[in-house]
Amino acid sequence: MEEKALPRSFSSVSEFVEPQLQQGLEAAQLQAEWIAVADTLPIIVFTLRPEGIIEFVNSRWYELTGLGKDAVLEEAWMSTAHPDDVEATVAILQEAIGARAAFSLEVRARTADGSYRWLRVQAAPLQLPGGNIVRWFGVGIDIDEVKRMQEELEQRRRRDRHIAAAFQRASLPSLLPQVSGLQFDAVYVPAGEEAEVGGDWYDTIELDDGSMVISVGDVSGKGLEAAIAMNKVRHAMGVVPLYERDPGKILDAADWFFRKRYPDAIVTAFVAVISPDRRSICYANAGHLYPLLRRNGEVLELRSSGLPLGVRHLSTPEPSCEFEIESGDMLILYTDGLTEWSHDWDEGERALHAIVRSDAIAHTPLPARLLASACTSAPFRDDIAILTVSFKNASPWSFQTANAYEAISARKEVIEYLQRHIDDPSIITSAEVVFGELIGNVVRHAPGPVEIEIEYKEHAIVMHVIDSGPKFTLTTALPLDVLSESGRGIPLIRTVSDDLHLERISEYGNHVRATIRI
Question: I want to staple 46 with a disulfide (CB 3.0 to 4.6 A). Which of 57, 427, 466, 499 is the partner?
Answer without folding.
Answer: 57
